[in-house]
């Protein structure tokens, strides 16, 4: 009995030490991941002359809130923010709409090519979005779509759709067939079944797809800079380019505009992170 008690105490001590080590490792990883954001905020509140001092971080003699005022006004922040919200909002809407209908068609409707169509759509996950930069530009230039909202919406939706389809099919597979059979017997048509019965049951996956689509497209810049030439539809990352001229030597203001550009995506991720992890985990288990 005494030996068993001693072994139990030793096991509990080892388990406690293991938890402490695990927490230390996780804390170090978290600090490493968060440090670039801390560094960005720290430099954005300092003056440009203080940036050339030694050390990774700066303790500003006086916090320079004027850096953010300059970045907000001269970087045309509100205009580019409005464009980003419109473009990303429409992209999320179309991705959700198409992925729900495509997932239902591939998993619930009986037709010979359903499996092949689903496979072809999912193959889009293997193609990098910027691999289509030049072909898309040639097509848009021929059709007169350059410098329009469609030049960004089409690739944003197309390359977010495979991920949305993958998550939606996993959730649809978990919905009992009996619910749809009962709806058909009650006289429901296909659209009422999809949007009034199936869609409300897909709330976890809808939240996950919407958030991931928004975050993936929010900071995209290469396609926007290639397809857009006028400020009409330029997105938020373009605000950084506004300081390549007269503010090229004012690094503090450049850090401020980068902080403003990153802030919306960071806020969305912090507030809705649990929905992302929950939806992905549930979709993986159900799929």
From TrEMBL:
The domain of life for this entry's organism is Bacteria
What keywords sit in the KW lines? Cell membrane, Membrane, Transmembrane, Transmembrane helix, Transport
Provide one Gene Ontology biological process annotation.
Answer: transmembrane transport
Membrane topology of this protein: Multi-pass membrane protein
Record field: transmembrane: 20-41, 85-104, 116-137, 149-172, 193-215, 251-272
Query: Where in this chain does the record put each ABC transmembrane type-1 domain?
Result: 81-272
UniProt cross-references to Pfam families, sorted A to Z: BPD_transp_1
Q: What is its main location?
A: membrane
Would you tell me the Gene Ontology cellular component terms? plasma membrane
> InterPro entries, from UniProt?
MetI-like, MetI-like_sf
Location of this chain's protein in the cell = Cell membrane
Family, as annotated? Belongs to the binding-protein-dependent transport system permease family.
Under what name is this protein listed?
Carbohydrate ABC transporter permease
